[in-house]
Amino acid sequence: MSKPIxxxxxxxxxxxxxxxxxxSRAIARFxxxxxxxxxxxxxxxxxxxxxxxxxxxxxxxxxxxxxxxLNIPVPKHHLGVGSGSHGRQTGLMLxxxxxxxxGSRPDWVLVYGDTNSTLAGSIAAVKLHIPVAHVExxxxxxxxxxxxxxxxxxxxxxxxxxxxxxxxAVMNLLREGVTRGVFNVGxxxxxxxxxNTALAEKQSRILETLKIEPKSYxxxxxxxxxxxxxxxxxxxxxxxxxRSTMPIILPLHPRTQKVMQGRxxxxxxHVRIIDPLPYLDILMLEKNAVGVLTDSxxxxxxxxxxxxxxxxxxDETEWVELVDAGANRLVGAxxxxxxxxxxxxxxxxxxxxAASLYGDGNAGAKIVSLLAxxxxx
Length: 377
Hints:
Layout: E1 5-11, H1 14-31, E2 47-53, H2 64-69, E3 77-78, H3 86-104, E4 108-112, H4 116-127, E5 132-135, H5 147-158, E6 161-164, H6 167-175, E7 182-184, H7 188-203, H8 206-210, E8 218-220, H9 225-228, H10 231-242, E9 248-251, H11 254-262, E10 271-274, H12 279-288, E11 291-294, H13 298-305, E12 310-312, H14 320-324, E13 328-330, H15 335-347, H16 355-358, H17 363-373
Parallel strand pairs: 1-2, 1-4, 2-3, 4-5, 5-6, 6-7, 8-9, 8-11, 9-10, 11-12, 12-13
């Protein structure tokens, strides 16, 4: 049997683990003797994956239960970097990731998205002349004040394989003069939602726990610094929530909670603040909501996969195709625009199938096939 193709996957936050799990499952299928992907294997090729968790975001929910519940492989390396300034955090990651890479010398380093872990993993690998594959390449908000924008642009510029989730992402790279090693594989989050929704349907009891009926509420999330750290924006958002004609379920991010407590903010009685929830519960709340109100990136897509309209409380989005498709309204933190968009969401009807924008739910398999073939520019 030929030598396995060694892949180091570098992740640092819970959403990245959920996405990476789609590729890990595809690797397991690829290596299986009875897989439908067997025709992709050449000369008995196998992939050997090791997961590195930088510890960028410490999440109390990421216990063994988290990995078991979502069928996610447990990391082989936990670097324990923790929180800190961007410079300190990224520097510590670089040092520790380099040690792992020097000890293993993988054939590929696989990074996801736009976090400091993404940037550190990419830089550490390229300086050791190890090829980098970037999942979710080509996304752009065109707002260089966002740390995520800097991370994704920098990672794209040094990656050997750019694994784009949409045609929009491909075109963004083309406008920047990047054409080599670019592949539109579809969105691994679509793979993940298809897989995890089936689990959620069996395991989650969140609707019963909260005693709510499907399509009787909005689901909201609010955590971005641009909203939480500016008093005017946060107050404007909650003023819009207060005008809602429907209950709003708000699993409150710890940072937002701390800010609200510090300002002694009050919320309307129909805004139901609850503790952060496990991923499967969030999926069920998204699926059954009238609409989603969020400043998250990933939740914009998840809402679309479920045929649920999204109101994005940001000034820009990486997922512009959702706005173009009429499934997402970009409203910033303006009270009246948010309130108007909530009325729009209540009357909204889906127009396009999810797969038309984000692939066919087999992005993980396509990524594995490219890694196995060693496709490089």
